Amino acid sequence: MKIAYVFNSPHASAYKLGQMILPQLEADTHVVTVVGMFFFDDNTYVLRKGDPIGERLSKIAAEKNILLMMCDMCALFRNLAQGTPKWSAPDVSDSDRCVPLDVVDGVGVGCFPDLYSALSGNMPDHVITL
Hints:
Layout: E1 2-7, H1 12-27, E2 33-39, H2 52-64, E3 67-71, H3 72-77, E4 81-82, E5 99-100, E6 107-110, H4 112-119, E7 126-129
């Protein structure tokens, strides 16, 4: 079974991801295949370069082909991205598009349409919001 996680609740990435899901992924005991993770609000902070959870997550995501993406508006608000969100300004050029800043390797930034597109080649069977 393929799963995508959406980290929406306060502290979901620091606690549920950092203390439960990530250790299981590292130990190869999570049972399901995780194909993607999408981060909202302050949950984006674990993706900062140098964050212990983010660094571990980046490594395991590369090994297991897990998509990591943060909400563009959430990332812009927290100075984890720069540029213009595509979906609030559809005519924005690719060179002005929102891009991540100072985050761990492998993290994308976007909105739900970007997430859908990024997962289209490896669709989850279930999406779990934490």
